[in-house]
């Protein structure tokens, strides 16, 4: 008598957990497949940003959601531009940024990797977009003040970050393969084959 009716909710919960696990694995599979396609990921995110901007412009509201989104993106940007081990905060036995011209070159390792940066921004815009469909998040506010405050915060934050880059002599961007001004190889051999 104890087993009667007791299996129904537990099997439904187990089936729901199994389905959630399968969807999680499928989502992770597509995330893993998108990892090497950096340009396409950022283009997709840019389209999402445009859709969000059009939604906010069309509705003429949700400025507080947009402001919160801007603060969150600024926080992510700081992590993206910062080294993994900050010489000012924590002395480490691991790789450090070179501080003198005679120091050995060490590659720049970000505190927030590019993929996690992209994923966090994309997820934030998706959540903000969903929030624009609920009127409780549309708090009436004078948006020019929020915009001015965010711009001042952005300028001060980026100034501090750039000063940190100058002080510790690192560049958080890879500007392509470094080329050296050595000898040029003659292309005469390839042109003589064409004859």
TrEMBL record:
Topology term for the membrane: Multi-pass membrane protein
Cited Pfam families: Rer1 (PF03248)
GO cellular component: endoplasmic reticulum; Golgi membrane
Annotated keywords: Membrane, Transmembrane, Transmembrane helix
Gene Ontology BP, a term: protein retention in ER lumen
Source organism superkingdom: Eukaryota
Compartment(s) where it occurs, according to its Swiss-Prot or TrEMBL record: Membrane
Similarity comment: family membership: Belongs to the RER1 family.
Protein name, per record: Protein RER1
